[in-house]
Amino acid sequence: MTVYDALALIAVLRGIPKNRVKEEVHNYIDALELHNYTYTTISHLEPKEVTRLHFLAAVIGAPPVIILDEFTAYQKYSVRRAMYSIIHNLRKRGHAVILSSSNVESHMPVTNRLAILFDGTIYDIDYIDNLVARNSDPGYTVVVHLKNEVKVERMFSFYFQNFIINDVNEVLVNIQILDSDLNWAKIFQRMETLQAENHHIVYSYVISAVPIDYIYNSILSTEGSESGLATSIFTKYFKKTIKSPTAATLDKLKQFDKRYYITKLKDLPWSVIFHR
Q1: Phi, psi angles (nearest 5°) of residue 221
Q2: Containing domain of residue 168, as a range?
Q3: Is the residue at 33 inside a domain?
Q4: DSSP per residue over 93-146, as a string?
Q5: N or C, where is the chain less crowded by C-beta within 10 Å?
């Protein structure tokens, strides 16, 4: 069966009038840049073209519920953009769209709620902002590039009531702003005022919040180590060969001081990361 025949069959089964099928199928094929494969047998398609075909098979005819799994994997930007546009229009018309992906950030423009899966079960589910607030430190992280030495705490106290200095070096300061009345608009407004009134001291600044991908990976890392998931995977195949080191062997290992916790954003060595 060719690409066109498969999509035309699905379109008819989903109730598209026969006199509209050809136009509808060609519109979708052109949108995802499959026009060179319109009459190609499906078994002769490359994997990335098969992924596009699966996407079209899911959305053509606009079913009430659409489930997609890793549909943007290895697709070029123009194709991903077309996919997101189709999903956005379906959502606006009231269709339920469920996306499964290991890359959360890329689907944010068409997502309003997120479920984090761990070990086959839903670990947490909520609106994006609520998930970020629940699984990260409060407030906003501000990194300021300074021109000259200054009493940072005194300078920030004129603009913010509650903040913590995470890290400071010669030209950079990392601060966690904790004022409860802030949103993105307000914190940018205050930082613009701070920079304008201290232009001889402040060169530039960056404001960030914990990205959802970071939270997702942190949860997987923490829960995986606590549940012993990594151990169970290895012992399943190498149970007879794995041997635990003796206490004497462990005592000979050189200990390293634990300075930073890489699963906590505010504990990262900012002065190293941002200093050029």
Answers
A1: -65, -45
A2: 136-211
A3: yes
A4: TT-EEEEE-S-SGGGGGG-SEEEEEETTEEEEEEEHHHHHHHSS-SSEEEEEEE
A5: C
